[in-house]
Design brief:
6 strands; alpha/beta; 44% helix; globular
């Protein structure tokens, strides 16, 4: 496996060398969270990550799935952080399958992609594996993600790490 150090600042991610993606922070997806994190703590972590990204000028992508038929709109608290940004709407669970999402990621010009979203085992794992395969370095902010059960969340994190993703936490990410 190739080293990610060449895309970092001495091994560290910085506002200049990364972008951030928020995937499916929507009411119905939140309803299905059962991975052990308190829903308020999850929201707090997501909003801390978002506000940190905005403060430091990190390019940020928002994406939602099936807002009209199933999942509902993106959390208003998250949209409040990025009021001028429209989430990329998808019809499929894998963000990477949506050309507008792929174009948005490529458009950042960054190789280090931070990811936050719901559900870890599907909507985070699948695009992570695809982006790793496409040459991106993926940093999963695991306490700003949640799965449908503790086992699903843990198995997804293990699968992504085995493929080359790096696990992060919100506070470590914002402070780094």
């Amino acid at each position: 496996m190739a080293s990610i150090l060449s895309h970092t600042d001495g091994g560290l991610i910085t506002a200049e060398n990364c972008a951030l993606v928020f995937i499916d922070h929507q009411p119905q997806m939140s309803f299905g969270v059962g991975s052990g994190i308190d829903r308020q703590m999850l929201m707090n972590n997501v909003l801390l990550l978002a506000k940190g990204a905005k403060e430091f000028g990190v390019p940020t992508i928002l994406t939602t799935v099936e807002t009209e038929s199933f999942s509902g709109p993106m959390w208003p608290q998250l949209l409040d952080v990025f009021p001028d940004q429209q989430p990329i709407e998808r019809t499929g669970m894998n963000s990477w399958d949506t050309p507008a999402f792929r174009a948005a990621v490529a458009g950042t010009g960054k190789k280090n992609i931070l990811i936050s979203g719901l559900w870890t085992e599907v909507c985070i794992t699948w695009p992570t594996l695809n982006m790793l395969s496409a040459g991106y370095n993926i940093y999963v902010v695991e306490d700003a993600c949640a799965g449908t059960s503790p086992a699903a969340h843990d198995a997804a994190l293990s699968r992504m790490v085995q493929a080359g993703a790096v696990r992060m936490t919100t506070v470590a990410t914002v402070l780094e």
